[in-house]
Amino acid sequence: MKTVKFVVDDKKQREFAAAVRKNVNAYFTDNNISPKGDATIVIQSVTMLSLYLVPFMVLLFVPMGAWPAFLLVVLMGIGMAGVGMCIMHDAVHSSYSKAEKINKFLSFFSMFLLGSSVFTWKIQHNILHHTYTNIDGHDHDIDSKGPIRLSDHVPVKPIHRFQYLHAFFFYGLMSFSKLMSDFRQMREYTREGFSKRYNINPTTAYIRMVVAKIGYLALFIGLPVWLTPFSGWQIFSAFMIMHWTGGFIMSTIFQMAHIVEGASQYELAESGVVPTDWAVHQLYTTSDFARGNQFLNWYVGGLNFQIEHHLFPNISHVHYQKIAPIVERTAQEYGLFYNLKPTLSSAFWSHVRRLKQLGGVPV
User: Fold this and answer.
1) What are the DSSP E strand ranges found in the chain?
2) pLDDT in tens, 288-325
3) Positive or negative CA dihedral for 212, 215, 169, 297?
4) How many domains does the chain have?
5) Does a structural domain hold residue 252?
6) Which range of residues forms the domain containing residue 110?
7) Any domain includes 363
8) Which of 107, 108, 129, 184 is the 20 to 30 A CA-CA neighbour of 152?
9) What is the dihedral of CA 348, 82, 176, 350, to 10 degrees?
10) Can you give the pLDDT at residue 172?
């Protein structure tokens, strides 16, 4: 992988980076509060785990027909997405708690419930996505994925023309795909030196991942086969519906933060230099949306405050609504663009228009 350097001569950009850190840190100091999670995140976590696991327990032990089971499986998918956005995301960023042991436990526990790997997520998300946001070839979140084109810097194919319609179906396959792709990603990241860089034994990590996935499948497929009267194909269909629901919610929320109008994308020059300050790069490649929607703020774990999250990934999402005006005001003071979509619907339709553009359809 080519080395990327953020180099800028613009004094104002460097001053913004220092000022926004100073202003946000002052908020926590002046109010004598920790930037990590508080009691509200615990209540939120219990709620999301209940949304996910209580319907599962009912499915296992209460006789019912196919339609009530279907509704419970959809509810599980909604809870599964909540676990990913509200617990896993903060824990893996070490922002859930001041106690790193709690962060590590919740990282592995929540990832187990998602059927995925902490190691591969940390590399793809914490390191590559957060460092090289929207840079083609470095941020794997904008890699072309079969029938979906998310980068301006890859060829347009005929199948991309209608991606603004079919992309959402494939978004739903995100979490199920991750269940399988973790093996490939672990091999790739080990080959690229990430295991060595972070002092991780790849053999041990691989064995742990295999054991965790076997345990996950035994729990969510094996137990229903053993304890319920549903057929094998019904149980597998329910498993897929759960994953599709959760994957659709998580992927759509992530996309509305980066693949929208006003969010820049970059093709790396041969020199490997990005001509902006890193903090300004995060400002230009991310978007906030629906900041006043209290239910959305709660359910998606603050992922609608993506600008604040990218600038301060080690701050828990429970604080984003308070620090967002500080970040926006600081950006305005330095004449920098702050990408805010006022509502959920405006962000959604901005994403649809962006999909059309990326598919070669005039908007």
Assistant:
1) 5-6, 273-274, 288-289, 340-341
2) 999 999 999 999 999 999 999 999 999 999 999 999 99
3) negative
4) 1
5) yes
6) 5-358
7) no
8) 184
9) 10
10) 95
